[in-house]
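Reopening this ticket.

The earlier resolution said the output was attached, but the attachment link was broken on my side. Pasting everything inline this time so it's all in one place.
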Amino acid sequence: MALSKDNTRYLFTFADEIWCVECNGNALWGAKLPIREGWTRVSSPSGRLGNEEQINEALRFMSLLLPVSPDDVRRQYRSLAKQWHPDLNPGDPAATERMQRLTVAAELLTGADLLSLHDTGEALYVKHVSTSEHRIADIGSVSVSVSLESGEGQAADWIYAANFAGLTDRVFVAGYSGRVIVLDENGEALRAYDIGAVPRRIVDTGHYLYFLTDTRLYILIEDKLYAVIDVHDGGDLIVGQTGFGLLEHKRFRWFDEDGRYRGSVLTKHPIRRVYVTPEGTVVETRQHRAVISGIPDWWKQ
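Inline output:
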């Protein structure tokens, strides 16, 4: 969850969905991240065709009457599957046969295969993995294609983090795929960034935009990449009003807003925290505390 700067609205996420709600409980908007790159939604027609007698038998078997809609068939299928599934009837040798007949009947009445009728009702997605050529004696060249099939839960780009922008009600949504989507105050997509890794921190100062990953800090102005800084030891980002610092395991570096390097502090022991006082920048480890004065100012109180 995240709270807006004026404390009037908040965000919450569920899997690949994000919702913005007023603090009085009134929902403002909702959005859903696109399916991860490489996955394609596919339909799965069964190819089964039945004559009048077979259709009528399927209706009788499922206790349905005409007229009947595909939704009616799906609901009845799920209801009967809960009664007849072999896993729920371990002592009934006829359970498997009944489930097979139920599957055939449902396919005849809907034209869809069992994958589109299972309990979750998910769509089916396919991702191409690889294609290879093999030469077999007496046959010639054979092409082998490998693909993955999955429901929407596997193909979806789940949300890793979401937060409001620093100065506005714009929203940043980061997915596990490494995509960051920027939404306006009404939930409409403004732009998307693909940084190839999950961002651990996103900071918007109004002019500069910072994306921190495990290995790099990306500095942007609107949709243009301004600078890239390598990060070591899973460093953290500390943003001030006139610059920023990168806090790493045994090193603290500070920069101007645009990423120009200004200086570093190296320590023998892991750094616990860094903060600014009127006397200067304070760097603390478990054993020592250093006050550094006379360095370029990067943090304004």
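Reporter confirms the inline version is readable. The first strand starts at residue 2 and ends at 3. Residues 35-156 form a domain with the Helix Hairpins fold (CATH 1.10.287.110).
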